[in-house]
Amino acid sequence: MSQQAGYSPSFKRPAEIMRMRRKRTRSDAGVFSSPSGQESTDSPRQSGSSPACVRPFSPGPLFNTQHRSGGGIKRRNPFANIENTYSPKKKILIYSDDGNAEADVSTQKECQGVLSFSASLTEAEKHEHQDISSKKCLNFSEDDSLFEEEEADIKSPLLKSPQSIAPASIAPPVCTEYPADWSLKTRLLFTSPLSLSWAEQPKAQEEALGLSQHCRAQFSTLPHSIQDPRSCSELRCAFQQSLAYWQHPSLPWISLFPRINAERSFTGKSTPWAQDTSLQQSLMSEWAVSLSSLYSLLKTKLCPYFYLCSYQFTVLFRAAGLGGSGTITALISPTTRGLREAMKAEGIEFSLPLVEERKKSKDQEENEEEVDEDRCPELKDGANCEEGDGDVKEGYNDDEDGDFSWLKEMGVQDKIKKPDSISIQLRKEGHTVSLDHKPESVVCVEGPHTFTLINFLINCKSLVAAAGSQAGLPPTLLAPVAFRGATMHTLKARSVNVKSQVGSTYQNISSLEITGPILPSSLHAITALLRPSQRGNFSATLYTHTPTAVMNIHTAKQQCSSGSVDLSGCGLSPASVQQLQQPSNLGKTALTHINMNNYSYTWKN
Questions:
Q1: pTM (predicted TM-score)
Q2: 177, 219, 291, 295, 375 from 572: Cα distances, Å
């Protein structure tokens, strides 16, 4: 047959292959069937297809056959080696009987198999393994390819997984609270794998009880986890309580928030006060009474904060103790040069926090440059030359603005109109005008000057639009507690079940949409209720009223420690008060996403 064409010497008939497999099985059975657990050195099976040391797993560590019992075993994968199956995260140690430590890459099931095999060893062998494991452990070097042995104390003889021996610092921190956000929200969209249908269609009794609790500032304590939120009456009442807010004026056919760039919402609506002067005066007098009532509540710490929303800017008044400030503060955004000049004329002292922060950063940079110049005299000489040039340029600009003698030299002094002093002043103050309608134009008023600001707003004629769709309409006042002339409103909540694609499958996701002027305390109260009802797993998308995003800046000159000011009677829950007392670290940005996973918060801004 060897002379036949196309014949391969390595070819074997199927019958021969089956005979070799049976022979190999009998050979393997003979190796492990020795009662003494030992094999003679002159046995032919040592050089056969079944070696004395085999791998029970593929690829697994070498085990001596003297402690193995049973018939056939799984053959080793010839293509597997320690290089292409190495994973530092799944590395464990398996010790052979000769005391040599061997690194093994295996899954959790293989680890269980090794532990079950070690359980079948005798007591003496277990003590031997315990002594060896207490002396050595395998450690990974920085390049994850070399191993180092170091002394370690292992209390348990069983090998531990890397997850169990990892230091606690590697675990992600648990954030039980997100930072305070003082911006107004126009829309919230919550999503959760659990149903959110419990949040809509309350019973008449639940709605009445929730509104009563809101007026009386009564707050119920909910359990850590709620199994059936739809049947939990306390949860549904608390949700209705968190949706309530107070507003003045109240016109059912017109939405009075937002007011900036909201001409579309007013067009086509009936505005009987637009051409009636007496009606406008009546609206403004009632509005002035409501604003005075709010400031009195704020001063006595019975109201935590309130918003004044006009067609040009928004004002946030905060009570003492909130936002890390020890006094009453007011933030106005955005502002114009005309408004700031009018406030100066009324004797209102204010600051531009973002402008001052920019100046401080520039001063620090200049100080660092001076230090560098002191270290390097050559740079200092060059800087002096530049400073001298700058002085010349500045002097030239000043001469150009104030001295026009060069016109006489040209003989055209009568033909060219000279700019007046007001134009020159406006040109010099161009950087202040450039701040108008920008986040950097935010103004902060603190202390007793806030009372002067209230009087200024009441008497300011430019506070109300003189023309347009909002002509004659007073600004909107929003507060979390009742005040004189206010009307209670509730946010609109709507629950929808949708399907979201996750990989190749679709999962049912429940969503909850809340619209309206959402105050900071309302946002915190709603998220506090979703925590137990959704068992610590939900996410939220926040839509911010853009002019109010900059109100998260920290501007307190008089620092106030948390809890030093008693705000127990302000009408908010203790958890909300504790959050709002902390200084916000969001800067001139606002929260856009909030995610809770396993009762831990993460957020984006």
A1: 0.65
A2: 17, 9, 20, 17, 57
